[in-house]
Amino acid sequence: MAKRALVTGSAGFIGYHLCARLLSEGWQVVGLDGMTTYYDVRLKARRHAMLSQNPGFRAVEGLVETAGLVRELAEGADAIIHLAAQAGVRYSIDAPRSYVEANLIGTFEVLEAARATKPAHLLMASTSSVYGANTEMPYAEVHKADSPMSFYAATKKATEAMGHSYAHLYDIPTTMFRFFTVYGPWGRPDMALFKFVKAILSGEPIDIYNHGDMRRDFTYVDDLVTGIVRLVGVPPAGGAAGPMDSLSPVAPFRIVNIGNGAPVGLMDFVLAIETALGRKAEKRFLPMQAGDVPATWADASLIEALTGPLPRTGIDEGVARFVAWYRDFYGV
Description:
It is built from 11 helices and 13 strands. The protein is of the alpha/beta class. It has one domain (4-183, 220-259, 297-312): NAD(P)-binding Rossmann-like Domain (Rossmann fold), CATH 3.40.50. The strands form 4 sheets. The chain has a 7-stranded parallel sheet with strand order 3-2-1-4-5-6-11, sandwiched between helices. β5, α6 (151-170) and β6 form a beta-alpha-beta unit. α1 packs across α8 (221-232), α5 runs parallel beside α6 and α7 (192-201) packs across α9.
């Protein structure tokens, strides 16, 4: 019998790629997405439409924070993978209430669903933003993450604490992912890669924050999805994988970084985009934005200890794949 997964945020960037991978591996997938207007809903609708071509996929439109909805959809699921969230560091300054509703209340609904239905594994997305003001790098899961620099990061750190409490109280095997700057085809329009490509092709300037002195651990979406799918089969149990393991001493709960483990300078990232497009960008250098951090860098030793070595797509190849998708999708 095919395994069943409930994926929240299934029409999102990462959710779409994850559902496609699960379907290709024979899973039955129920995908829940709120189709919110944070960015172009047509992009989300196209992703769901492509997934729906597979008879193993069932699309459900609804907000994750709707009382009882996730509980209804989770019945019989072997794995619940919770990706739905209000994303974005900068938007959390302008619209913080949406982060309370989607991230806090939404995660509460997922936890209640897991408490009722007892999946073999509950997996939930956090973010590298929870490392906040930490200066010790690479970021390791056992490092403190108590100084969030944005309300977005604060809500995601809160979901980690919520997840741990439910894992302890109700014996729910739970893994939290901390994602590092995910990019690739079908990416979000609010992310730098999408914005830069669109601006350069339109002959408009791109905004370079902190005057270009920034580094990000860019992680190609296919590599990230490989990590998620492998972790589905590794619920927290037994002994620690080593001193780097974040396994809780009082609950079947673990936090895992998923990142490339190789930070890239912002100006090198821009150069990769210019090379892929065959055009130079007009650059507008600006100060650091509120809530942002100058660098991220994942210590990937824990996930590799749990799942084996992960693919690591280089920035030039990954950016070129995104540009090819963008040109094809938008006909430019």
